[in-house]
Write a structure and sequence with these properties.
- By secondary structure, the protein is an all-beta fold.
- The chain contains no helices and nine strands.
- It is globular, with a radius of gyration of 12 Å.
- A hairpin with a 4-residue loop joins strand 1 and strand 2.
- Strands 1, 2, 3, 4, 5, 6, 7, 8 and 9 form a nine-stranded mixed beta sheet that branches.
């Protein structure tokens, strides 16, 4: 599944993922491969990304990604809010 996280300033992340947990307006929710199409508003919080592999290169995204200290395939990205859309195993996040 492909994930893109975009802010007005830059692209925060782009890559292949297995799962993503979002801070939704009504609570957190997770998206897995094959998820039905959805559009949702996001609140301030952290997006948890389960990477498809642990050799993803983050050089272009330095400073905006927090690696998990216990799992090299998990990273977190802080957002102030935004919207996300899932369609055909592609997730696009427009974040503040």
């Amino acid at each position: 599944m492909k994930l893109e996280i975009i802010t007005p300033e830059k692209k925060m992340f782009e890559g292949e993922v297995d799962a993503v947990r979002f801070p939704g307006i009504d609570g957190s929710f997770q998206v897995l491969r094959g998820h039905a199409p959805i559009i949702s508003a996001l609140s301030e919080g952290k997006i948890k990304v389960d990477l498809s592999n642990d050799d993803t290169d983050f050089d272009d995204f330095s400073g905006s990604i927090e690696p998990d200290s216990t799992n090299s395939r998990v990273v977190r990205l802080s957002i102030k809010g935004g919207v996300m859309e899932v369609q055909n195993d592609k997730i696009i996040v427009l974040a503040d």
